[in-house]
Amino acid sequence: MNDVRELLGRAVEGAGKPAFSAGAVYAKAARIRRRRRAAASAAVLAVVAAGAFTLPRTGGDEDSAHTSVASAGPSASPTDPAPDRAQRLAALLPGNVGEVEEVSLAVLIKNATPEQARTDYLGPLDGHYAFRKGGGVGYLVLVLEDREAVEKKTGRPADPDEDLCVRVGHEPARTDCVREVLPDGRVLTTWRDTMDVEGDDSVGWGPELVGRLVQPDGSQFLVRSSTGFEGSGTRGPLLSEPPLSRQQLKKLLTGPEVLPKG
To answer: Can you give the pTM of this predicted structure?
Structure first.
């Protein structure tokens, strides 16, 4: 769970509203999920019909909410053309994953401006993406951390010999955890997270597939393939399954397209 919270914490840090807690984003998931199971399908349709897919306008004729999360992605300036990360990512995936759009979780969840949400990424495809399919909306978060960033955060570089599937201390066991040592020495670990946590916040995340790819140089990729979220800033109902499967995550993370040039 720490790996998952860490990704969202990075996604929204520095975007104003200091009272926000990354851990709190997950806090209401269990209660929201129970209400969702009990709610009739007609109520869900009513929410969608009322505009659950659309963020509120902030003024002017242009739909600024759409512009902030799609046309001006988290690492684009307001005056620069939109990055083509979403198109490049979609080209690497099968067509049945749905429509892919680059977004900013800070914009969606915290109502941050594009400038506040601006992030400098290491990898050419690092970022946050929305996947629309069958009326639902899921998310993919991909982040590359170099050795220096990992050491600053944990006090040591990422260790390929560490087995993330082994429960340590009071840390909860990772569900359906698979550890794979690749021929080039990299280690990919993927697991499922139900996101069943209690707390008090306006956002609840659905189940997701989480992954970490540790590289021999001490760097690592962190990834979330989430069925989506409910509550403040939602753009649609949860997907029935994470947008990318375990094998699709593996193919994406081990390909050259996610690595910085040089």
So the answer is: 0.71
> In whole angstroms, what is the distance from residue 158 CA to residue 221 CA?
10
Tokens of 250: 């593996």
- If the chain, 262 residues long, is cut into consecutive pieces of 10 residues, what is the mean pLDDT of each piece? 53 43 42 43 28 29 32 36 80 94 92 86 95 96 95 93 86 88 96 76 88 95 95 91 96 94 78
Instruction: Supply 93's token pair.
Output: 């995936």
Contact 210, 190 (CB under 8 A): yes
